[in-house]
Amino acid sequence: MDTLRSDRYDSIVINRTRCSFALDRILSKNWMGIDPMENETFSGLVEFCLKFGFISVIGFVSVNIFRREPFVSLDFEKYMGTMYPQLGGLLEAFHHRPVLLLSTPLVCHRTQTAEEKKAALGNKRSEADFMADIDRRNALYFSHPYISMVMTLIELGAFTADDIVEIRENTVINGRLVDFFIHTVGLSRKMGLCESDEVWSRTHSFFEALPLDADTRDRINTLFAARGAASITHVE
Q1: Other residues' Cβ atoms within 10 Å of the Cβ of residue 104
Q2: Mean pLDDT, the chain, whole residue set
Q3: CA quadruple 113, 118, 119, 124: dihedral, nearest 10
């Protein structure tokens, strides 16, 4: 409680355990796999994301404690459609505000199986897509909409283009965030999801802004060529 009452940190991230939805099995006693006796401080959520990812840890709502005023004062409309609008808000509000990682697992995450998720969601189609069909979830929510959110955070000065290339994840992908985006945009095109020229143009602008190696650029250009769009030219 002394930590919560302190004015030192504007955001606190908590390590967690994972268990079955019925609470009869422990799936992980230390989900982040870190020393539970060593808390860590960060200059802001950007620095945290560079070490632990943008989606993989803080994407779980219950692990975040933060000051209310900077968060609720934001306009969240620009982040809607991603299924993770709170992440856009967290980075906009706390990208350079001090962060504490509490390494001792203090939150228990109850985890449903795919069948349990389907049964619980019933006819709520969009949520069923998100939770039960991984490829459709990724194509719908983690492709163009999520890229647009990250592009907005770059435009606002929360992230830099260099940050995005450096961020790695360990849930949605075991690797670079940018490679996950290439995968999800490819899924979106493969599934024939209708995206406007305006949407594709913004995605193009996002990739164009990143300092990419030649191999990554070529993989992205293959996606745009398949749609008849222009290639990206920015290479690190």
Answers
A1: 13
A2: 89
A3: 140
